Amino acid sequence: MAFSDCPFCHQIVPSSELERHADNHFVEVELARDADIAQQIAAAPTTLSSITDWENGKGSGCSTSACGRTMGNEEEMHVIIEKISCLTRLQIRATFYKVEGGLLALLRRCLEMESRNSVTILSDFVDHFQSVEAEDSGWGCGLRNIQMLSSHLLLRRLEAREVLFGGSGFVPDIASLQRWLEIALQRGFDVHGAYSFNHKICG
């Protein structure tokens, strides 16, 4: 049996278990970060303006009456308002690679020279969010696609920039994006998806 040295804690583990062992280090960091965010959410002061904005439908993504039906009661609504407020302040900007116009022009020429009969759609103004093996197990590629599409919307559509990710103006990292998805599920978006994930995306 082959053994390997963990690059994080330098513990010797069987090579076949190295990836799982290393991934657990990230889980521990995320759990600590989640606990810190939870404490900050719990300690966050209630702001009358955030409740007023919610009730008036500003930045809500659905009508007040529709949100009221899915939220259940005013206390749940208040908790979600605080989660949104806290997440907007604490989310981390994701790292990305700026895709320049020359690269897209080169890619277009290469695709046009192919002899295959296929259709390709290229869009400019999309930042590239690289997959990271240690972070992107499972649904990572879908979340990276959401980041890339969001980068396009933030750059090209003012109305999206004003509301996406709390109006921060940037694309958040995967952990923050997962928290945004959880808030959306709590607000009643994608009822079937929320049920299949047990209303939990993080962790």
Automatic annotation (TrEMBL):
The protein's superkingdom reads Eukaryota
Keyword match Hydrolase: yes
- Cite the GO molecular-function annotations of the record: hydrolase activity
Keywords assigned by UniProt, alphabetized: Hydrolase
Gene3D superfamilies membership? 3.90.70.130
Domain UFSP1/2/DUB catalytic: from-to ranges: 118-193
Q: What is this protein called?
A: UFSP1/2/DUB catalytic domain-containing protein
Source species = Stephania yunnanensis
